[in-house]
Amino acid sequence: MKHDVLEPRFVKAVPCDLEPGVLYVSMQYGTVVHSCCCGCGFEVVTPLTPTDWRLTFDGESVSLWPSVGSWNLPCQSHYVIENNRVREALQWSTARIEAERTRDGQVKAKFYARQAAIEAIDAPVIAPVPPCPEVRPTGLLAKVRRWIF
Ligand SMILES: [Zn+2]
Fold this sequence. Notes:
By secondary structure, this protein is an alpha+beta fold. It is built from two helices and eight strands.
């Protein structure tokens, strides 16, 4: 790894030109972006969602979990970011990468199906408003009016 330590930088928006060795954290967009730690210069995006990565900030350093596997990049880098340190991880076989993609897709499908079911339950039920009962005046004057008209 060319960069074995990352400096966390909390930003509103991630800049177009990434500074190597910096881990850009955008809470507004729920994402973490950095230039690949191998030094290849490719951008690595790790979205923060319930089914993707989780970021831990202890006030001084950040950790990102699970590991970062850049399977779509030529370098195929795989590493763990823990307390600002980059720890190289084992290379994965093509079969393992495919198995992980399948597992990830299943986890996402299950999570979002459950979310949709919860939202459907929580959705307000729009019931028809019952018609107001006819209120008829009952006084002597009303009786006289009904009798005349
Ligand atoms: Zn790389």
